[in-house]
Write a structure and sequence with these properties.
Largest sheet: none
Strand content: under 5%
Number of helices: 6
Shape: elongated
Order of helices and strands: HHHHHH
Radius of gyration: 20 Å
Number of strands: 0
Distance between the termini: 63 Å
Structural class: mainly alpha
């Protein structure tokens, strides 16, 4: 009985900790809005470093330079904003 009670309390505690650390939609929307305010799509797409990283990422594919470029594009705020601006531009030109 004691073991099951301890197990149940441990599971309850760990789930509550995980739920408290999970980002919610409001946090993600706030981050997205900050990125939008900080950079306009036109300025982002003219960033030479991001253009080079995107070119390395697309041309090098799954090779080491391509994977390093992907990592930089995914982990930096500028890289995520550049990717969103590219998607937006592609939607506007396609539609």
């Amino acid at each position: 009985m004691k073991k099951s009670l301890i197990l149940l309390s441990t599971i309850t505690f760990s789930v509550s900790v995980l739920a408290g650390n999970a980002p919610n939609d409001k946090d993600m929307n706030h981050i997205d809005n900050q990125i939008k305010e900080k950079h306009s799509a036109k300025n982002i797409l003219q960033n030479r470093d991001m253009q080079r990283l995107h070119r390395d990422m697309t041309l090098s594919g799954m090779s080491e330079p391509g994977m390093e470029a992907r990592l930089k594009m995914m982990t930096t705020e500028e890289g995520r904003a550049y990717h969103k601006a590219l998607e937006k531009r592609q939607k506007n030109t396609a539609g």
